[in-house]
Structures are given as C-alpha cells and as structure tokens.
C-alpha cells in the first residue's frame, strides 16, 4: 500500500468505530453526522480490504482483522501524536547548555534572582554568559549563541525577538563639577567637555553621536571602559561626563553605586534606546528555548531596572 493513499484523518474515526462498534456512537464522539461516518467506514473498508464491522443479530461485531487493529491502534495513534506535536517540556528533567549574551548591568542587577529560580526548577540547565557585542549576530546565526539581551538598532529577517523596553539618555557628572553651577547643560557645555564611553554590552554611543553629527557637533571621548562600574568610578573622580540610559543612571544612583554623582538632562534630542531579547529563527519552536526565553523576558519585564511597554515580534 502506498503511503500517499492513506488519509491520517481516518485513523481517529477507525479508533472510535472499533471502540464503540457503532456508526452512530462513533459519529457522536467525533461530532460528525451519521451519514458522514458511514462514508468514512466505507473508505476504511476499501483501504484495508476488510469489512471491519459486521452485523451479528442486533449487534455489530469486529472481524478478526479489526480485532488485531483494535489492539494496535492506540499505541499507533500515540506515536503519531508524539511525532507531530511537540512534547510537553519538563524543566526538572532537562539537561543541556545555553550560551547567552548580556550586558554587565543585566548580569549584576537583573540576573541573580532569575538564575536562582532556574537553578531550582531546571537543575540540569547549564547557563554560560558572555558580554554582548553587535558582531555576535553571526554567533546567533551559526549556533554559538542561543539568546541575547541587548541594545539592538538593526532589524534582521532571520533574528526573532521581543522588545524589552525603551529609554531616554541622561548625563552624569561628579557632584562638584563646574558645569553644575548652571541650572542646565548647554550644547556647548556638553560638546566642550571630555566624555567617558562604555564599550561593552552593545552600541550605546551611535545614537548619541548620530544626533550630535546631525547638528555638526561631536563628543570628545577621553576614556573608554568596558564596564558600568568602572565608568561610574572614573566619572566620580574626574571632570569627564558619562551619558547613560536614564533608568540605568537613576537606579545606580538610588543604590548609591553612583555616589558622588549628579544627573542632568541632555541639551539635545536623541532617539530612544531600545532593549531587546533576541534569538535565531531556528530556535523559535524549541521547547527548552521557549522555556528559557520566557523566564528571561519575565525577569526583564518585572525588574525595577527595566521599563515596560514590550511587544512580541
């Protein structure tokens, strides 16, 4: 028999017919009309070359072939269902490794409670974290990276994701900085000062520099460091300015990690920075990946260090 001749939709009907030994009861179980079920029985008889159900007195009885099929069919239907429908994911039984790119800010201020939860619910889950860089898009595509929480400016057809929030920028200065004598920073103040740039964790500079370039201005980068805390320390001990997304700056100040710093609004407009949780399209339907990225999304969504307003692509 050629497989192309087999209509898998007939198998549930065959199961009901063999279980109930009644065309009308099988029709009721599958919510179809009795004439439709009678036609299905005719198709099954032709397909299998056997009458399957025969009348004996006032009852319908199974033929020997139908008796054999009745014993085989439940396991067969279960195999087909497991083949076509993804298994339910059990995190307690899962064992596997995920490579995830993040910023140092996320690592210190958002991930610890999440990692603690995952350690309890999925003890076999191995998490390996890396500092995000825009070039890691290639790592996502080639399977060296599974997930990234980052600032993403570009849109890629093969990269899926969820927006994790948007934010503005603010400028940090040491508390006794001469520029704080004025009620607000001017554009000349901002571009005339030295600046600190944070290189790790994604491109935080391009939106700022593009907005300034549109006005024929530029920043003078005096210090470049990879991490937030070193940038804060340098800012507090120098006349350099540090420009950060607003919620990061405010939360760090509230935690006294920005002790000795003050914030000022920028004297020019900058497009809002966008935070994203991204992955490659091939992992869109993987059960373990769905479990992990949902937990990451929930942690980012509920954290006081993030902002709301998320949309799924």
Q: Please state roughly what percent of the residues sit in beta strands, choosing from under 5%, 5-15%, 15-25%, 25-35%, 35-45% or over 45%.
A: 15-25%
Q: What's the CATH C level of the largest domain?
A: Alpha Beta
Largest sheet composition: 5 strands, mixed
Strand order of the largest sheet: 4-3-5-12-6
Helix-strand topology string: HHHEEHEHHEHEEEHEHEHEHEEH
Shape: rod-shaped
What fold name stands as the CATH topology of the largest domain? Answer: D-Maltodextrin-Binding Protein, domain 2
Report the structural category: alpha/beta
Please, how many domains? 3
Distance from N terminus to C terminus (CA atoms, Å) equals 44 Å
Multimeric organization? single chain
* Total number of beta strands: 12
CATH fourth-tier homologous superfamily of the largest domain: Periplasmic binding protein-like II
How much helix, percentage-wise, in residues? 40-55%
- Kindly provide the radius of gyration, computed on alpha-carbon positions and rounded to a whole number of angstroms: 31 Å
Average predicted confidence as pLDDT: 86
Count of discrete alpha- or pi-helical segments spanning 4 or more residues: 12
Second rung of CATH, namely the architecture of the largest domain:
3-Layer(aba) Sandwich
Low-confidence stretches: 308-313
């Amino acid at each position: 028999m050629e497989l192309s001749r087999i209509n898998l939709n007939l198998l549930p009907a065959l199961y009901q017919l063999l279980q109930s030994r009644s065309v009308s009861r099988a029709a009721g179980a599958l919510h179809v009309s009795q004439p439709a079920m009678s036609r299905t029985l005719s198709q099954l008889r032709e397909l299998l070359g056997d009458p399957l159900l025969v009348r004996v007195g006032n009852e319908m009885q199974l033929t020997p072939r139908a008796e054999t099929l009745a014993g085989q069919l439940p396991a067969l239907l279960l195999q087909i269902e497991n083949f076509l429908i993804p298994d339910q994911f059990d995190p307690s039984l899962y064992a596997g490794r995920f490579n995830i790119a993040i910023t140092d800010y996320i690592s210190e201020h958002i991930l610890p409670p999440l990692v603690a939860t995952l350690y309890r619910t999925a003890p076999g889950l191995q998490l390996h974290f890396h500092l995000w860089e825009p070039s890691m898009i290639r790592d996502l595509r080639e399977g060296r990276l599974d997930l990234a929480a980052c600032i993403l400016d570009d849109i890629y057809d093969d990269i899926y994701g969820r927006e994790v929030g948007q934010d503005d920028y603010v400028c940090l200065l040491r508390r006794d900085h001469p520029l704080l004598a004025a009620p607000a920073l001017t554009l000349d103040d901002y571009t005339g000062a030295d600046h600190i740039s944070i290189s790790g964790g994604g491109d935080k500079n391009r939106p700022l520099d593009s907005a300034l370039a549109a006005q024929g201005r530029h920043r003078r980068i005096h210090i470049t460091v990879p991490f937030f805390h070193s940038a804060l320390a340098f800012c507090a001990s120098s006349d350099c300015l540090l420009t950060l997304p607003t919620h990061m700056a405010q939360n760090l100040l509230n935690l006294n990690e920005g002790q000795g710093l003050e914030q000022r609004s920028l004297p020019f407009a900058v497009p809002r920075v966008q935070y994203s949780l991204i992955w490659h399209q091939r992992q869109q339907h993987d059960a373990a990946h769905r479990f992990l990225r949902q937990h990451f999304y929930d942690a980012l969504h509920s954290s006081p260090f993030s902002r709301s307003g998320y949309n799924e692509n």
